[in-house]
């Protein structure tokens, strides 16, 4: 199964119905994508498929054939969202953070607070009460 | 002026978390690793009659109670909870058998048929005859004072289970090492795991515990990880290979601990002008099937049950009862959110009975320095009940809003609360916590067993040490909690990690600074080599506590809070929309304002979920809605805007004036929400206040 993973062409050997989440974590060792529920409710497993955020626990590998998949690792370590998540303490325990950042990537510049809330509605955070996450995204998207 | 303390410096673990590089338990892989699985009971009470393996057992490691080399009990307060059922089942989802295999698919599809002789189970704590723990607190003469009261107000208040929903489910890996194991896991208390494994595997066996990055705890990873670690260790010892056990969400919800449900009865005598003259309180907690931590949860719950108020005649009678549900356990607040819910809604009802404004009633009775609590503890200058109340009322224009919203679908509600920091009474003395600072070639290293679970332990400890040593924050290293390396600084619970462990570290740093004699750490190391400073916690010497009479200084200090919630309710659907929440908190002094704000915002959101959304449905002793699809925690869309105010009142017993903070924010939202709903003319006395429950209240 061939697809683009963080900008590089890769071939996956996992069975076609494997969850994309497991393929990323186990076959490619990209453990930045997390599992919080396995049923599409928490968003910890959010990655971008052709630029759109999806829950990788719900996507079978076969569905990303020829598509472009981006994970938190593809962002490197110098993205404004990453910096502002640090500065604003948008990450406490950090387990939701990769998913939050991937979900936030799809927001346009200068989002309103409501835009952010809607974009993150599928991403649960139990630590922050979301407020610091909004502050982080607001700053990163206003630069 | 301080340089590092009070500054919102970058988190030590920030970049790892923002890049996905931080390693959590499930991210670790060891050569030859097997996956482990727990086979659990499917009856709430009974006796195991037979166990049959309905699968091809080749390549499987299978463990039951007969494989336990030491004692088959999870050593906590009591030694009553088995790691694996021997014969008697006392709750649903109780571990009976362990399986491990390298192929996860084969492991999950292995079928085990267990037959039971089922017995009658008890789920209602009020019908249970098993008293797990009883506590009585008596001050003055309640019966005589009640007789002299102008008005007596009575009521019963209930709170449900609450599930922690740390977004990372429980997970550990046991790896054979020497004649024993090393356990890597998502956990709060590495030395609790050591204690439990020493009893399970034998005291002389080599055991090491390493905390991995932990995706949230909230008390939920205080005691239960010892159980999972024991299971993984048994499988690892039997197979001779590393074994990983990671729960999925359903198993995590069905099998692990929850917040204790409570039933609290109040009977209070007041004068017509609003003075509390007698408080009679009965607290009942549902402990579940084993003792676990319930005695201490009950203790904290009872001590906080009279609220932050002055009353010369108080009687608090607490009982934790056995039932046939999985044991309830530690959860942020530890009994206090339940009892403070009851007393704060009751205060609202007293104000209603007197026709008095609820703020005025609280102003009249709030503790001030010189007053005593129910246990007889004298309040000093660190008592800030009036400070937080006055500021919250002023800031939200509470009284004007209360009047303006009358007759509309909008309302404001208020709660006043406090939370004792650190272990109760003589607890800190018994714990005898230690902390160590090492001078190494890289600089100064903090070596404590206190865990980072998101709240900022590493960062805040490093700030305290940097400040006390007078060296840059960036040069302070924080050791990963590995029991073979760090000092046992006690469990990461009870809002004690900053106030207690931070204080020991401050003292270690002061001693290290004296020894450096003006040299920088690197200069000193180059000249003389490294050294370590180890210190033990000294609780304030004035603390007097009697565990038998429950009289004395329950806590070294309290943190204080007042929450004001503004909400709207749809009168047709009974859906509640929280609009704004103002939280005014006093917790000494924030070491790291952004982290402290995060604790308040996060704890408050958790409290809002507790108040309105989070309903654990128990059916036949098992959580029936054990999924995030139908156990609802607040999302970005349900969380109101927060207005957070941190008032300072430095506490001399804490590092740079800090008290404990982590649990306080959990105490306030429940009653504030219900008191707002009461202003909409609904007689609510229970949480979660779901639309279904509110519809019932409207019919009363
Ligand atoms: S793990 Fe995919 S949504 Fe929770
Ligand atoms: S930071 Fe812990 S779940 Fe979001």
Would you give an account of this structure?
The complex is a heterodimer of chains A (143) and B (700). The longest helix of chain A has 10 residues, at 131-140. Chain A has 5 helices and 5 strands, in the order ββαβββαααα. Chain A folds into 2 domains: 2-74, Ubiquitin-like (UB roll), CATH 3.10.20; 75-141, DNA polymerase, domain 1, CATH 1.10.150. Chain A has 143 residues and is an alpha+beta fold. The radius of gyration of chain A is 15 Å and the shape is globular. Chain B has 3 domains: 30-120 and 164-255, Aldehyde oxidase/xanthine dehydrogenase, molybdopterin binding domain (Aldehyde Oxidoreductase, domain 4, 2-Layer Sandwich); 262-425 and 550-699, Aldehyde oxidase/xanthine dehydrogenase, molybdopterin binding domain (Aldehyde Oxidoreductase, domain 4, 2-Layer Sandwich); 433-536, Aldehyde Oxidoreductase, domain 4 (2-Layer Sandwich), CATH 3.30.365.10. In chain B, 28% of the residues lie in helices and 25% in strands. In chain B, the strands form 7 sheets. A 7-stranded mixed β-sheet of chain B has the order 3-5-1-12-9-10-11. A 6-stranded mixed β-sheet of chain B has the order 7-15-14-13-8-28. In chain B, strands 16-23-24-27 form a 4-stranded mixed β-sheet, with helices on both faces. The termini of chain B are far apart. At the A-B interface, helix 2, helix 3, helix 4 and helix 5 of A face helix 1 and helix 16 of B. The structure holds FE2/S2 (inorganic) cluster (FES) (2 copies).
């Amino acid at each position: 199964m061939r697809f683009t993973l963080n900008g590089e062409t890769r071939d996956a050997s996992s069975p076609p119905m494997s969850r994309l989440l497991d393929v990323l974590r186990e076959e490619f060792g990209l453990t930045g994508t997390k599992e919080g529920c396995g049923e599409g409710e928490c968003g910890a497993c959010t990655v971008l498929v052709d630029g759109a955020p999806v829950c990788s626990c719900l996507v079978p590998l076969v569905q990303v054939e020829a598509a472009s998949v981006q994970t938190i690792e593809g962002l490197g370590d110098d993205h404004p969202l990453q910096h502002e998540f640090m500065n604003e303490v948008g990450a406490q325990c950090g387990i939701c953070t990769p998913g939050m950042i991937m979900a936030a990537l799809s927001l346009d510049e200068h989002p309103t607070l409501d835009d952010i809330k809607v974009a993150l509605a599928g991403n649960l955070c139990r630590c922050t009460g979301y407020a610091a996450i909004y502050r982080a995204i607001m700053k990163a998207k206003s630069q | 002026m301080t340089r590092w303390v009070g500054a919102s410096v970058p988190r030590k673990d920030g970049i790892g978390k923002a890049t996905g590089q931080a390693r959590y338990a499930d991210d670790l892989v060891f050569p030859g690793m097997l996956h482990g699985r727990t086979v659990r009971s499917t009856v709430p009470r009974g006796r195991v009659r037979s166990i049959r393996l309905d699968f091809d057992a080749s390549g499987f490691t299978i463990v039951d109670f007969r494989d336990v080399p030491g004692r088959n009990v999870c050593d906590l307060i009591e030694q009553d909870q088995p790691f694996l059922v021997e014969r008697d089942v006392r709750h649903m989802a109780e571990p009976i058998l362990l399986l491990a295999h390298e192929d996860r698919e084969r492991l999950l599809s292995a079928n085990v048929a267990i037959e039971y002789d089922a017995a009658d189970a008890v789920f209602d704590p009020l019908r249970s005859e098993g008293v797990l723990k009883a506590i009585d607190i008596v001050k003055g003469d309640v019966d005589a004072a009640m007789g002299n009261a102008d008005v007596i107000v009575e009521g019963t208040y209930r709170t449900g289970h609450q599930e922690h929903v740390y977004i990372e489910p429980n997970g550990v890996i046991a790896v054979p090492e020497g004649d024993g194991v090393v356990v890597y896991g998502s956990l709060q208390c590495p030395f609790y795991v050591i204690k439990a494994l020493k009893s399970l595997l034998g005291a002389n066996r080599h055991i090491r515990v390493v905390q991995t990055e932990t995706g949230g705890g909230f008390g939920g990873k205080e005691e239960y990880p010892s159980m999972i670690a024991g299971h993984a260790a048994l499988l690892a010892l039997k197979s001779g290979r590393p074994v990983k056990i990671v729960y999925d969400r359903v198993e995590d919800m069905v099998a692990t601990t929850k917040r204790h449900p409570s039933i609290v009865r109040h009977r209070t005598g007041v004068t017509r002008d609003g003075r509390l003259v007698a408080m009679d309180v009965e607290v009942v907690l549902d402990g579940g099937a084993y003792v676990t931590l319930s005695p201490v949860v009950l203790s904290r719950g009872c001590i906080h049950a009279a609220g932050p108020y002055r009353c010369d005649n108080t009687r608090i009678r607490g009982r934790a009862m056995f039932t046939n549900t999985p044991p309830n356990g530690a959860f942020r607040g530890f009994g206090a959110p339940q009892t403070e819910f009851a007393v704060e809604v009751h205060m609202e009802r007293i104000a209603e009975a007197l026709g008095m404004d609820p703020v005025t009633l609280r102003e009249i009775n709030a503790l001030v320095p010189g007053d005593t609590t129910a246990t007889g503890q004298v309040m000093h200058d660190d008592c800030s009940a009036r400070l937080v109340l006055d500021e919250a009322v002023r800031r939200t224009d509470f009284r004007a809003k209360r009047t303006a919203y009358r007759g509309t679908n909008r309302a404001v509600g208020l709660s006043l609360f406090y939370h004792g920091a650190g272990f109760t009474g003589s607890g800190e003395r018994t714990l005898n916590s230690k902390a160590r600072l090492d001078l190494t070639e890289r600089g100064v290293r903090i070596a404590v067993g206190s865990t980072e679970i998101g709240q900022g332990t590493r960062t805040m400890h490093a700030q305290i040490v940097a400040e006390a040593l007078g060296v840059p924050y960036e040069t302070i290293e924080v050791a990963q909690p590995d029991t073979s390396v760090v000092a046992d600084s006690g469990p990461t619970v009870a809002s004690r990690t900053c106030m207690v462990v931070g204080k020991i570290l401050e003292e270690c740093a002061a001693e290290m600074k004296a020894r450096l004699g003006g040299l920088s750490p690197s200069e000193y190391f180059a000249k003389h080599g490294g050294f370590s400073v180890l210190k033990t916690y000294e609780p304030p010497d004035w603390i007097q506590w009697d565990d038998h009479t429950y009289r004395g200084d329950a806590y070294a200090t309290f943190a204080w809070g007042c929450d004001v919630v503004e909400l709207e309710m749809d009168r047709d659907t009974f859906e509640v929309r929280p609009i704004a929440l103002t939280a005014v908190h006093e917790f000494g002094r924030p070491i790291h304002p952004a982290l402290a704000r995060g604790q308040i915002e996060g704890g408050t959101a958790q409290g809002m979920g507790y108040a309105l959304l989070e309903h654990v449905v128990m059916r036949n002793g098992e959580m029936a809605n054990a999924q995030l699809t139908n156990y609802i925690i607040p999302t970005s869309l349900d969380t109101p805007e927060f207005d957070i105010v941190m008032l300072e009142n430095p506490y001399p017993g804490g590092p740079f004036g800090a008290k404990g903070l982590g649990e306080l924010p959990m105490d306030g939202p429940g009653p504030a929400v219900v008191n707002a709903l009461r202003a909409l003319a609904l007689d609510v006395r229970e949480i979660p206040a779901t639309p279904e429950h509110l519809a019932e209240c409207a019919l009363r």
